[in-house]
Amino acid sequence: MSEPVLGEGAVVGAGVLFGENVVVHPGTVIGDGCVIEDNVVLGKVPKLARTSASADRAAPPPLEIGERATICSGAVVFAGARIGDRAIVGDQAYVRERAVVGVDSVVGRGTAVDNDVRIGERCKVQTMVYLTAFSVLEDDVFVGPCAMTTNDDTMSRHGPDYELRGATLRRACRIGGGAVLTPGVEIGEEGFVAAGALVTRDVPPRGVVLGVPARVVRDVPDEDLLERWR
Which of helix, strand or coil describes residue 165? Predict the structure, then answer.
């Protein structure tokens, strides 16, 4: 078993298990009892285009990983991110700078969590999801496989003052597989977005939406609320 490559000032807690070919960049903090699987890169410093909205920011602080978190094979987690206790970052996932993954949350295989995304506690983000920059997921959110959020109505044809607007997913809402959320939309608490929907407007709390573009068809029934399924 090869030893991990530890950068200067990296802090490794008690009982951390490393797989093969792990690279830990300088200053990274890994909490007690974490599992870091094969070919993981921790604390990577972002390489930004000159035109990036983040290009003029100071270098991000070190990556922080909470206790008993698992970073699965091939994942890349950037400097400035924070991974909560017992969270799981899946195989080949990608977590950018200043992103936060909350306690007990799961980021699925091949999912990309862009910069400045906040994921709350106990969220389930499935395989191949894209969470665009400046999106917010409150606690207990479910995002189905291959769902996508967007944050730029102009598709990069805007001036420096343009504000990128990610999606806001309120507590316990559910997003079906392959759904697309356009910039700035908000899915209300306990809202339900059907698979393949194109969401161009805010979804009210407990609203069930489907279609292209998505429209409200009914409310989530009481028996489907999170409290019945804890």
Answer: coil
CA dist 19 and 212 (Å) reads 44
Per-residue pLDDT reduced to its tens digit, 134-159: 999 999 999 999 999 999 999 989 88
Q: Is the dihedral angle over the CA atoms 67, 69, 71, 77 positive or is it negative? A: negative
Rounded alpha-carbon distances, angstroms, from residue 124 to 6, 107, 201: 30, 7, 23
Burial of 20-34, coded b for 16+ CB within 10 Å and e otherwise, reads: eebbbbebbbbbebb
Strand 207-210 and strand 215-219: pairing? antiparallel
pTM, two decimal places: 0.94
> 195 burial class (0-12, 13-18, 19+ CB within 10 angstroms)?
middle
CB atoms within 10 A of CB 190: 22
Q: Please choose, from the candidates 217, 215, 127, 136, the residue with its C-alpha nearest in 3D space to the C-alpha of residue 177.
A: 127
Q: Please give the structure tokens belonging to residue 68.
A: 């008993």
CA-to-CA distance for 105 and 90, rounded, in angstroms?
11
pLDDT tens, 150-204?
A: 999 999 898 888 999 999 999 999 999 999 999 999 999 999 999 999 999 999 9
Instruction: Say how far apart CA 84 and CA 73 lie, in whole Å.
Output: 18
